[in-house]
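This part of the workshop introduces the protein records we will be handling. A record pairs a protein's sequence with a compact description of its fold. As an example, a complete record with its sequence and its structure tokens follows.

_____
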Amino acid sequence: MPTIVMHALPALDWVRADAVGDRSDRSLLRQLLSEVLDLRRRIGKGANIEAERMRYTSCIGELESRLSRSGTHASRDALERKLRAGDACAFELPPAYFDLMTRAHLERMESRATLQLVAETGVVAELGASIYPPSSLIAHAAELDRFAAGLMLADQPTLQKIARERADLVRTLHALGAGFVEASEELDNRDVVPPPPRTLSPEARARIAAWDQPPPATTANGRRRMAERLEHEIEAALRGGSAVNMSNQPHEVSTEVLARFLFAAGDQSGGQVRVVYADGSEARPFPLRSLPPPAAAPDGAVEIAVALMSMRHLELDPLVDWAWFRNKEVSQTRQLAESDEFCFRYSLDQLEGLRAAYGGRRVRLSMYHTGFEPAALGFYRALALSLRAQRGWLRVVPHFFRGGTRFEASQMAWE
């Protein structure tokens, strides 16, 4: 079942703005917190509500994912000590918390009590939110006290106890100047379907130790380990004809590694690797080692900035000239390989149109990635084939999302 974890964050994470250019994990976290709270305020004003809610959902997802990978779990007893030291503290909430939130949702469906409290205080106090800044905690504790004493929990002493204990915890956090974020961290079915026993050879154990369970790809070390693993799989696939699962790593890792295999060195012969996705579908093979190393890039290229897909990172709008794919056309219910094929064929037409539009002039395309592996694979497969047909006119530099509004240019260009 899902596990809900409370991530208590110290006061500085809610009030301190880090220096421009600080790209530490803690700084990224603070920027995400600030962005989420700004989006909540804008949503409250009711302007551009649909777009703001989409951005809010995306930011909350990134925030919860980053916290879930932060490794800050500790005991409840360590809470006050860690927060006073300026450290985060995370711990699991009891399983019955789900029942508490279910009843809170039912009450909201039947009552206007929460709406009245918001109108009176101006603070969102409803139960079941994802993020609770320090300024909201007193109202949240009051709402928990009200709910614990209400009719919805009148016959539920266990849930009453959980609600009151949570109210006490929230007041403690407020006294420390802290706030908290709640995240669903895992789907755990080990009690339902225990893993089958396995007998592994020493060779298999060594291989698993080397390649299984890489670090999270949000760190430079994690991306490096995933890249090494994917390179190993591609080399093996080129030798033996096996398929490579491109859903096993983020699109940014796949893009970087495939760029390394784009050029043939020395007497290397060209080849292609079979591509499969997590849903079991197999896409068109990806061409590798199909181009000689590029010559020095001439000056005077036309500079164009493009988002890979629309509606994924709306903060990109002031930075890009257009979106390569329309989200509505790509994000449809179909097999991942079918989405890959759509993006591949679409990109072949787009690339030919781009070349014709600039009449032979050299183009430098900054491609801002916006997620979804089949879109990235489809685009870069089409790009590899287009470059094989005609070199020298196009250089594509991928840019990868690094949290908040920041993107990082790849060291590997496609040209």
